[in-house]
Design a protein that fits this description.
- Helices cover about 5% and strands about 55% of the residues.
- With about 700 residues, it is mainly beta.
- Strand 11 and strand 12 form a beta hairpin.
- It is globular and about 70 Å long.
Length: about 700
């Protein structure tokens, strides 16, 4: 009877979704001019945008009060940030969840318009470098965007923005299960002609699984001032993560359903330590009827972690530091024609070491022989990225607009190996069974030239409705690990850039109470990079990605508001890249078809709000042969907030309200079903002081 009641309650709540801002509830969507900056690298009304972009505003970020960014990004259709342990993650954005050395290079991750990691040096977990907890706005641009950003923007762009120089003065303390504590603070002030703001987040989590948990600290500052015609905005951030990592649960098929197994951590020695720093100085001025923007930036990151997911459990240490410059000029050529020209420069020096501290422990004599103790890789790469781009915007008529964007990128890597060339041990002796697995190519320089374009058209049907169409060609240059971290005696790697084409049709509409967006996309990738059965990196994989995305925000009354974000997509292999691999027509693993998120906000009283959230993830295949599956899940969350007075508020959250057994991500590899577990029901409370 209790389960029937729970299911009935969920069904009854599906028809609503409650948000809480009384002031906003009195405003018409048609009167709210939401500005986006990421999709076109210029300020533009969201309603007029050609292409599908989701916006997660400051209020939504505050209401979710996420411990992990996947809890926030679920508010964008077509996005699944698959949560690993601690602050780790893998991204799906108009794509399957992608894994492997170059998987992160299919997406571009920005903070305040600057890439979190350098081109060619990204990491799948790089979003934990962002200070999302104090962000004002998160913009998620779906699909191809290389014509604006170059390499990596094949499946999408995520930009996390803050304007701390105009932030509220507040202090918040979060307390949750498993010894979770977090302090969030923001403050700003004006000092003569300078606006200055600072944000701090300090987190400590004991971890649900044994020998897991993390300590994380984040500091961000921003300042804005005027110097003559120039308006300058500074952004600085530093993050530090020290994490004890729990690996996959590998206790058989559907092990995540057995509560007695959930705390098991089969890799108690796994860890990840990471530090990152970013600085940018954006300068804007109007000179001779043209808008100029000049943004120099600096980037540094250093990370060490135990590769517990590999036999032999080696340690990886990687770091890189960058200096870069973004330059653009925008001018109206005529009353109906505008031109933007720009250039991006990025210079990076990076290094990577992989070493194994102990002999490989395995029942396999082969693995013991080919995975020796000692150094596997030790190399540096000096990378240079140059790009020129331009965009023409043309107003065809009062109700019609079009644009054409072109970009050319040059990517150059200068690789230097500090160990012996080939697949010998670090002492120069040979491994058994034909040689060591890890192979080091000779010193070399690699250069990639890539051109991308984007063409778009929009038609305004009336004041409340717009339709758009967009055609894109994008690319990504090979990741440095795909070029220089070779295996099984692959002495030379001749891979080239991945090519992608996308067609998109969309409809956007708004009334006094509704804002909605519907988009269909068809994306194909050719010449994609993959590892064959010999663990060699090759070009030649073709995949297809197509889907429908729907976003709707509906103010039902002055006290109820609902938000639905959903997508239905299919991701398939389009060829058999090597003999013996029959993949054509199969669905790519870890690509659920339906992803949906429903939120209902209810203003119970003038000072009491509540929020119900329902998150659904379809089942999906766990392997490329489509023989193993995960059944999917639906999880509910409940949040409430009491504004005690003008200074103090108290909030509560219950995550996984019905204590559903689910997996954050499921996988099948090395003959094992593997799961990142979904945590059982857990609660938290937040005390906030505004001053």
């Amino acid at each position: 009877m209790r389960e029937v009641f729970k299911k009935s309650l969920v069904v009854s709540l599906l028809s609503v979704h409650f948000t809480s801002l009384a002031a906003q509830n009195s405003q018409s969507f048609a009167d709210i001019e939401t500005i986006v900056t990421t999709a076109s690298r210029a300020k533009k009304r969201h309603f007029d945008l050609i292409g599908n972009t989701s916006i997660i505003d400051k209020g939504a970020v505050a209401n979710i009060n996420a411990e992990h960014l996947n809890q926030v990004l679920s508010l964008a259709s077509g996005v699944w940030l698959s949560r690993g342990n601690g602050q780790e993650s893998l991204l799906s954005l108009r794509s399957p969840v992608l894994t492997g050395a170059g998987s992160c290079a299919e997406f571009l991750m920005l903070e305040n318009n600057i890439s979190l990691r350098a081109p060619g040096f990204c990491n799948v977990n790089q979003l934990f470098d962002s200070h999302f907890e104090i962000s004002d706005r998160i913009e998620v641009v779906k699909g191809n965007n290389s014509a604006r950003y170059g390499s990596n923007a094949i499946h999408g762009v995520i930009n996390i923005n803050n304007t701390l120089y105009a932030s509220e003065n507040q202090l918040a303390l979060d307390v949750g299960n498993d010894n979770f504590y977090r302090l969030n603070a923001t403050a700003s002030n004006d000092f003569d002609d300078v606006q200055l703001g600072v944000g701090v987040t300090v987190s400590s989590d004991g971890g649900y699984q044994s020998s897991s948990g993390y300590q994380q600290q984040k500091l961000s500052t921003s300042a804005q001032h005027q110097f003559g015609n120039w308006q300058t905005t500074h952004h600085f951030s530093v993050t530090n993560l020290e994490q004890d990592t729990a690996g996959y649960l590998q206790q058989g098929e559907n092990a995540y359903r057995d509560k007695s197994l959930l705390k098991i951590n089969e890799f108690p020695d796994a860890y990840r330590d990471s530090i990152s720093m970013h600085y940018s100085m954006q300068n804007n001025a109007e000179i001779n009827n043209a808008l100029w923007q000049l943004t120099p930036y600096l980037r540094y990151t250093d990370m060490t972690f135990l590769m517990h997911f590999l036999p032999g459990t080696p340690i990886e240490k990687n770091d890189h530091h960058s200096i870069g410059l973004q330059l653009s000029r925008y001018a109206e050529v005529t009353d109906v024609l505008s031109l933007k020209l720009g250039s991006d420069l990025d210079f990076t020096q990076g290094s990577l070491q992989q070493y194994q501290t102990n002999d490989t422990i395995s029942d396999s004599a082969f693995l013991r022989a080919v995975l020796p103790k000692g150094q596997h890789y030790d190399y540096t790469v000096n990378a240079k990225n140059y790009a020129l781009y331009g965009q023409l915007d043309y107003q065809i008529a009062d109700d019609q607009n079009a644009f054409l964007a072109l970009r050319h990128d040059i990517t150059e890597y200068d690789y230097n190996n500090a160990l012996s060339t080939g697949n010998l041990k670090d002492d120069g002796t040979a491994c058994g069974f034909g040689g060591c697995r890890y192979t080091r190519p000779a010193n070399q320089t690699n250069r990639f030239n890539d051109t991308s374009y984007s063409l778009g058209y929009s038609l305004t049907l009336n004041d409340n409705t717009i339709v758009f169409a967009k055609l894109d060609n994008s690319f990504r240059a090979p990741h440095t690990a795909e070029l220089y971290r070779l295996q099984n005696n692959q002495q030379q790697n001749d891979i080239t850039s991945v090519d992608a084409n996308q067609q998109e049709l969309g409809l956007r509409f708004q009334t006094e109470t509704i804002f909605g967006e519907l988009a269909f996309y068809h994306l194909t990738k050719k010449n994609a990079i993959y590892q064959d059965s010999d663990r060699h990196y090759l070009n030649g994989l073709s995949t297809q990605h197509q889907g429908l995305e729907f976003d709707l925000t509906w103010r039902l009354s002055d006290t109820f508001k609902t938000r639905l974000n959903s997508s239905y997509a299919k991701h398939t292999y389009e060829n058999n890249p090597t003999n013996g691999q029959q993949l054509k027509g199969n669905e790519i693993d870890t690509s659920p078809r339906l992803i949906a998120n429903l939120i209902i906000d209810w203003l119970i009283a003038q000072n009491i709000t509540s929020q119900f959230e329902l998150r659904h993830l379809d089942g999906y295949y766990l392997d490329d042969k489509n023989t193993h599956t995960y059944s999917g899940h639906t999880v509910s969350n409940l949040r409430a907030k009491w504004q005690i007075n003008s200074n103090f508020s108290l909030a509560f959250a219950i995550l996984n309200v019905f204590d559903t057994r689910y997996a954050e991500r499921a996988d099948y590899a090395f003959g094992n079903h593997r799961y990142f577990i979904g945590e059982p029901r857990n609660t938290s409370a937040t005390l906030r002081y505004q001053f």
